[in-house]
Design brief:
By secondary structure, this protein is an alpha+beta fold. It is 41% helix and 19% strand.
Length: 226
């Protein structure tokens, strides 16, 4: 193309420069990596739920959604009550809030500079004084706690209000598999069951934390959230 436009054959140096230019331009695209991140937009309940391993990945999804339509605007959910404060109360009292049960996993961390951490896995958290002593005597704060909602959804709640490792306990493939004629129908059936339950679960979880921060509440609700 250069020869056709200039009327003469380019020099060797010019050809080398062209090769370097093309390499620099195309190399970053030569090994592209693609990934799929699932999300659920619930316009009725006002939820955007992103199945992402990190907050950075979730931010990427919201950024692309915003680029697709400037009318879309999302904000992270902020509870009226600190998740760490609520988890501390549940562990000290050895009982979860209404509708929730404490499972056998948690992470306790010291707020001091050294951030000493104690992890429990497959360990009873309510039948021993050990957890309570870490909190009341040593001042450690729960930053992760495994819970189950209504014997239907197990999950891990973090002090940043992240919901991790969600498992739907009463939705098994056998419940819907026999009625599905295709993989697409199977997905739609599973997704319908999952999202119906997920919306209720998230609403109940926020309610235990005093609701969304900034939303008006009755005096009784405000006192209960303290």
């Amino acid at each position: 193309d250069l020869e056709a436009r200039s009327g003469f054959k380019p020099s060797r140096k010019r050809i080398r420069d062209l090769k370097d230019q093309v390499t620099d331009e195309l190399l970053p695209r030569a090994f592209s990596r693609y990934r799929t991140t699932f999300c659920w937009i619930d316009p009725v309940g006002g939820w955007l739920v992103i199945d992402a391993p990190t907050s950075k990945r979730a931010d990427e999804v919201t950024e692309w959604l915003h680029k697709s339509s400037e009318a879309l605007a999302f904000e992270p959910v902020k509870a009226a009550r600190s998740p760490a404060s609520a988890m501390t109360e549940w562990l000290v009292e050895r009982e979860g809030p209404a509708g929730f049960s404490i499972d056998r996993e948690c992470v306790l961390q010291s707020p001091l500079e050294e951030k000493s951490t104690v992890r429990y896995s497959h360990h009873s958290l309510v039948d021993t004084d050990e957890i309570r002593n870490h909190i009341t005597r040593d001042g450690k704060v729960p930053i992760q706690l495994a819970l189950t909602w209504e014997d239907r959804v197990s999950f891990v709640l973090t002090d940043k209000l992240e919901v991790r490792r969600v498992q739907f306990l009463d939705i098994t493939r056998g419940d819907t598999e026999s009625d599905a004629d295709s993989a697409e129908e199977q997905f739609q059936s599973d997704f319908t069951l999952m999202t119906a339950m997920l919306g209720r679960f998230l609403s109940d979880l926020l309610e235990t934390l005093g609701g969304v921060d900034g939303e008006p509440r009755t005096p009784e609700e405000a006192a209960a959230a303290q």
